[in-house]
Amino acid sequence: MPGRFLSSVLIKYKGRKILMDCGEGTQVSMRVLKWGFKSLDIICISHGHGDHIFGLPGLISTLANSGKRNPLTIIGPQGIGSVVKGLLVAMPYIPYDIYIIEDPKLPIGIKMGPEGTDLVTASSINDSNLDMIISTLELEHSCPCIGYSLFIPRRPRFDVEKAILNKVPKEIWKRLQYGESLSYGGKLYKPDMVLGEARKGIKLSYITDTRPIDDIVDFIRESDLFICEGTYGDEEDLPKAIENKHMTFSEAGRLAFKAEVKELLLTHFSPTMEDPYLYEKDILDIFPNTIIGYDGFVKILQYR
Amino acid sequence: MPGRFLSSVLIKYKGRKILMDCGEGTQVSMRVLKWGFKSLDIICISHGHGDHIFGLPGLISTLANSGKRNPLTIIGPQGIGSVVKGLLVAMPYIPYDIYIIEDPKLPIGIKMGPEGTDLVTASSINDSNLDMIISTLELEHSCPCIGYSLFIPRRPRFDVEKAILNKVPKEIWKRLQYGESLSYGGKLYKPDMVLGEARKGIKLSYITDTRPIDDIVDFIRESDLFICEGTYGDEEDLPKAIENKHMTFSEAGRLAFKAEVKELLLTHFSPTMEDPYLYEKDILDIFPNTIIGYDGFVKILQYR
């Protein structure tokens, strides 16, 4: 719509980028942000409906023109591979590899470096050696659709007293601090011999398009930012939300409340809803820390 | 680009619509115009590069949502069929037929009615029984690319004196006026027995992306509006224009001058050219009746 682009989320971390959904015009919004294109390594697609994917061909071309040469990984639900392949028929040559991950059942570990992003199997959702862990959840929409949670683990603090108490030689402090277990002078040392207690990471979750199924609550629990569809603001549109497998503002708000998230960002407004701010008061009653999304909204998430 | 969408042309005539090229975001510009979607019957594609076609999936979906049920015809160069087919893989169901015409060598006659548009073989480029005639020209770009000319023929005036002089019975005046030849009372009557001299129609031509090959001059001759690419404004970019198979402003201006068109509308500016108006003075020296295109530009063409 003029003045309201389709919903998508661009995440910048450690100099690399991850995009969530890519409707027509997403690359225009990216140009407005001026964060660049070249360092986009991962695109997470919720589902294969046009408003979430029709920006892919243009963006993939623009990435090529931006000088991108390292691989791009596209994650999506069952069937996303053939959809992407179709969209790319028009493109004769793409100067970087595109990997497709369909419906990943296990969390994906992310290691970010200056030249790109590596994807590995995440051994644990709290593995602090990884830069990020991407998990997915099957949602309930009119086609295969998945939600995403992005978790940035936080390393425990280095605890000098504990290291001394455990008689850890100074020479291996750093290696233990960064998660290595090693034998030194005939003795086995483990990271927890020098590390303080676990610290909370940063969690962002992205849920669209779906009915508010129970599984979502656990999946998004204690997110720092819960980005959620709010297709309809008016409670009278609940029958439409049920029929079209979407949510109302208050359904999203109740999920946010139950999951004790820090903040809720509503997005994916129906084109029939001209002014989502009309329903702001109602949603604030259900979940006070709610933002009604708007084009170009930017937020910095920090460790608590 | 923010503030400058990709080039395309929307033509409204007799309640129906024809679109020329459809890059990402074209449907957003169409929404801004508020001319509606449902009556779009023909899309003319110059070539299969992303900036001319990546808006197709979104537009085709929007047409479906707008209630369109009559056929859509997509005209384009050799190979456009497989490109469009690919782009549509992501769309499970389109509630109207899509016909593809690849590289039409002969002019296409257009008959417009309240419910849609019929395409017929145009027997003559001046057939005044047709609402419009679409012709194409092979251009010189880095892939198969065609230019378009849209011609709206104008019926000659009915000449009462001539009809009386030729002893045409009044009963068949109207039928002859509308182009029928018929036998009446044992005698053959032809339209030119009641019609005045030929009158000039309206001609619009659309040429992008290409080098300024000689064939273009005849093809666009005496256009009322010649819409032409001007990828580079600066004459110093001529080597780039040659390498990338595009034109500079002055090359477009010289085509306009040679072909004696009424007006030149420059479009398809390189993203590297921030302000096309910088080169306005130079192009006006070559062809004074030049408009530097901008988003949302609308022009009404009338019979002279």
CATH architecture of the domain at 1-123 in chain A: 4-Layer Sandwich
What would the CATH topology of the domain at 1-123 in chain A be? Answer: Metallo-beta-lactamase, Chain A
Biggest pleated-sheet summary of chain A: 8 strands, mixed
Task: Identify the strand order in the major beta sheet of chain A.
Answer: 7-6-8-9-12-13-14-15
Poorly predicted ranges of chain A (pLDDT <50, ≥5 residues)? none
User: What oligomeric state best describes the polypeptide chains here?
Assistant: homodimer
The greatest inter-chain interface is formed by: A-B, 28 and 28 residues
Class of secondary structure makeup of chain A = alpha/beta
Rounded to the nearest angstrom, the radius of gyration of chain A is 21 Å
Shape of chain A: globular
What's the helix-strand series of chain A? EEHEHHEHEEEEEHHEEEHEHHEHE
In CATH, the homologous superfamily of the domain at 1-123 in chain A goes by the name Ribonuclease Z/Hydroxyacylglutathione hydrolase-like
User: What is the strand content of chain A?
Assistant: 25-35%
Mean pLDDT of chain A: 93
What does this entry show, briefly?
Chain A has helices at residues 26-33, 50-53, 56-65, 80-87, 160-165, 173-177, 215-220, 238-243, 249-258, 280-286, and strands spanning 9-13, 16-20, 40-44, 72-76, 98-102, 108-113, 116-121, 132-138, 146-154, 182-184, 187-189, 199-207, 225-229, 264-267, 290-292. With 304 residues, chain A is an alpha/beta fold.
